[in-house]
Design a protein that fits this description.
Blueprint: H1 15-21, H2 24-39, H3 47-71, H4 73-78, H5 94-115, H6 118-139, H7 146-155, H8 157-166, H9 171-194, H10 196-202, H11 207-210, H12 213-235, H13 242-263, H14 267-272, H15 276-304
Helix pairs in contact: 2-3, 2-8, 2-15, 3-5, 3-6, 3-8, 5-6, 6-7, 6-8, 7-9, 8-9, 9-12, 9-15, 12-13, 13-15
Length: about 300
């Protein structure tokens, strides 16, 4: 990791800069999927404990983001879409980000153990370690499988939410994990298709950099095929039902069709139209995950009614 220091004359950090360290967009997905995992679990949780649990899971997600930004400051300084982040822009010192990440990690894990149970707290601690160390420090700069293996970190939150309610793991929580885990590669690879130069300049071995766009296109389609059965299977468990199943069938049909369109694309045509299809599929992937978990939530409420 290259040390990044605040440059002379850089604007002083504002509150929003420290919020940005926590990667609020990523945290919002962590909060939502953890909340759904907790709520659809078969064990009722007191509303106050549920709110506290989700809050501390979110805090743990934010801690992971701060640790990631601390270590990846050199990469962020090179890539266009990350150059304005607080550390490469010189508004926050790397040491501050590291201290915030460690402090929030300790607070989040300890408080989740006290609020819910220590199994969920240990699960959260492992997730923070996995994202900050296994993915950020090891996988991201070493292997094109960084997104595949590292995607597990983003797939753990609904399992942690489920564990807050039940104190354990089940087939339902494992399938929620699988839904996010197998969604992550096609989601990020679709982005990498039209952001390849950024990753190349930063020296990040994304699949587009190490194996080229043609191989990446085939991998995207393959993963949409692998993903669909897990998404449907979740609908056949006690947390599923007709509302979720209908949503899953439509979304996976669209995602597979998008993967097929990407795989069949000629690179010259893609460049000519500004990667229009790839950007469309990337946007679809953003809605894909949110709508699956929203459908689980609606299905749960429908069952309660």
């Amino acid at each position: 990791m290259t040390e990044i220091h605040a440059y002379e004359g850089a604007p002083e950090a504002e509150f929003r800069d420290y919020v940005a360290l926590l990667k609020p967009r990523v945290m919002s997905l962590v909060v939502f999927t953890a909340f759904v995992g907790l709520l659809v679990a078969p064990v009722p949780v007191h509303p106050f404990i549920a709110v506290c649990s989700v809050l501390f899971i979110a805090l743990g997600g934010g801690a992971s983001g701060a640790l990631n930004m601390w270590y990846d400051a050199d990469i962020d300084a090179v890539m266009k879409r990350t150059q304005s982040r607080p550390i490469p822009a010189g508004r926050v010192e790397p040491g501050e980000a590291l201290a915030i990440g460690i402090a929030l990690s300790i607070i989040a894990v300890t408080m989740l153990g006290l609020a819910a149970n220590w199994f969920a707290a240990a699960f959260l601690a492992f997730t923070i370690f996995f994202y900050a160390v296994v993915y950020t420090i090891w996988l991201k700069r070493w292997t094109p499988q960084n997104i595949v293996i590292g995607g597990a970190a983003g797939a753990f939150p609904p399992m942690i939410g489920w564990a807050c309610a039940t104190g354990g793991v089940s087939i339902e929580s494992l399938l929620m994990f699988a839904l996010i885990f197998f969604w992550t590669p096609p989601h990020f690879w679709a982005l990498a298709l039209f952001m390849k130069e950024d990753y190349h300049k930063a020296g990040v071995p994304m699949l587009t950099v190490t194996h080229g766009r043609a191989v990446t296109r085939r991998h995207i389609f393959a993963y949409t095929l692998v993903l669909a059965p897990f998404a449907i299977w979740l609908g056949l468990t006690p947390v599923g039902g007709p509302i979720y199943l209908a949503t899953a069938v439509v979304l996976n049909a669209l995602f597979i069709a998008g993967g097929w369109r990407i795989m069949r694309r000629d690179e010259g045509r893609a460049v000519a139209d500004g990667y229009k299809v790839e950007k469309q599929v990337f946007r679809l992937s953003l809605y894909y995950l949110f709508l699956h978990f929203l459908a689980l939530l609606v299905q749960h409420w429908a069952g309660a009614w």
